[in-house]
Amino acid sequence: MDVPASRRTADPGTVAIVGMGPGDPGLLTLRAAAELENADTVIVSRAHCPAEVLAHCRPDVEIVDTAAGDPVKLAARAAKAGRRVVRLFQGDPGLGCGLAAEGGALAKAGVPFEVVPGVSAVTGVPGYAGIPLTDPDHREVRVVDASHGGVDWTTYADPAATLVILGAETAVAETCKGLVAAGRSDRTPAAMTSLGTTTEQETVVSTLHKLASDAKGMEAPALIIVGDVVKHRDKLSWFETKPLFGWRVLVPRTKEQAASLSDQLRGYGAVPDEVPTISVEPPRTPQQMDRAVKGLVTGRYEWVVFTSTNAVKAIREKFTDYGLDARAFAGLKVAAVGEQTAAALVEFGVVPDLTPDGQQSGEGLAEVWPPYDEDLDPINRVLLPRADIATDTLIARLTDLGWECEDVTAYRTVRAAPPPAPIREAIKGGGFDAVLFTSSSTVKNLIGIAGKPHNVTVIAVIGPQTAKTAEEYGLRVDVMAPRPSVSALAEAVAEYGAKRRATQIENGDPLRKPSQMRRGARRRK
């Protein structure tokens, strides 16, 4: 079968000159991802390449930093050795990058190459800033590379044309004066966006007269847009107005548990940092679980209760060991303590028969649990594969209802190792804007391994019990989920962030994240 052109990759001995977009790893094209997946050698400036881009590479790929030498010579040497080479550029290789020079040098050296265009900063950054480059009244866009100076601004004096100016971060005043001297009105709308398409993006909207002073201190790389199209930003700004835009949020859960929560937070514009507070390990004596799985197959139980996603994972792993699958649950009734656990079961191929109506906890499940009825229930035995530190509240309630419970240790939870020093310093020093506590144990364990969050950090908790624990440890609870689910917790934090932003705008205050409220924090416009 022919490989689609969009997925075809360079042959060995060929250099693929690939654009990776202006900053957001999500702007990598399908073709670029395919090239990375098949690359033997990748040549890139490591300092300007997001880790998520290189995550598309095979584990055995050779990553060569352009700081190690002439990238053309490095690429040619690898290609002549029969390796698939990817030369990565920020943005699009042909716009403000080195395609002309490096492509020409490869051609001169007799090295075959291909070009994989990328999303250019010229279009990508204005798009993320909410500024269309054209509209019905402005149909011309002119791109200026001012990085080497010497621009004849009289060439760009036509007010009908939108200007996109690259490389002028250190010469904003000279650029604006040059355009005004060339005939552009000093009241012409102008915007400058730095670190475009990343969660550090910042946009200042001004005029040619005031842009230099208004944009003072902005970081490179930055891009200037000049023209009436800048006025559209008031209505079209979508990225920087996300409720948690740029917030660094600590998610103290295991990697597996944090995945869906982190994805949701990214959707709100946040930058999640996953810090495991517990480590999940197998039980010290596996015989209990072996007998439990055998009992599942032989019909020993009427019900199986899953109180966590880790319990689902533990049973799945045992099933795999014995060559079993979800069909082994035929004839059994299955209960799940909450929506995340239920989702893990559905992924396994098991639809729960019972979940709590309200509070998603052992207590909530106990409230809806049916009493044992010897006429309806042929067996009165319930299996609970749980953690070694699980509470007995649910067992006590089920026992009162006439059920016989078998509590089996499916996994052990131990406190995780402390996170790296920069994370610990950020937690205690106010480097995080928010921390999301999904259980009382995450409060205790995070403080135990990393210290107490700074008082500027927004503290968000999943429910009343977690709030009580946080307060016992001296934390001020700012946000509590309306219902005990991680999705609801993320929504509640986003709502808090949106209200906070609205209040700052209403009061005429600078838009500042919680971490920027601490003493010594860099203030952004």
From TrEMBL:
Q: Which UniProt keywords apply?
A: Lyase, Methyltransferase, Porphyrin biosynthesis, S-adenosyl-L-methionine, Transferase
InterPro entries, alphabetized: 4pyrrol_Mease (IPR000878), 4pyrrol_Methylase_sf (IPR035996), 4pyrrol_syn_uPrphyn_synt_sf (IPR036108), 4pyrrol_synth_uPrphyn_synth (IPR003754), 4pyrrole_Mease_sub1 (IPR014777), 4pyrrole_Mease_sub2 (IPR014776), Siro_Cobalamin_biosynth (IPR050161)
- Gene Ontology terms describing biological process: methylation
Give residue ranges for domain Tetrapyrrole biosynthesis uroporphyrinogen III synthase.
261-490
User: What is the official name of this protein in its record?
Assistant: Uroporphyrinogen III methyltransferase/synthase
Instruction: Quote the biased-composition stretches of kind Basic residues, using this chain's numbering.
Output: 515-525
* GO MF, one annotated term: uroporphyrinogen-III synthase activity
According to its UniProt record, what is one Pfam family this protein matches? HEM4
Where is the region Disordered? 500-525
Q: Where would I find the Tetrapyrrole methylase domain in this sequence?
A: 14-211
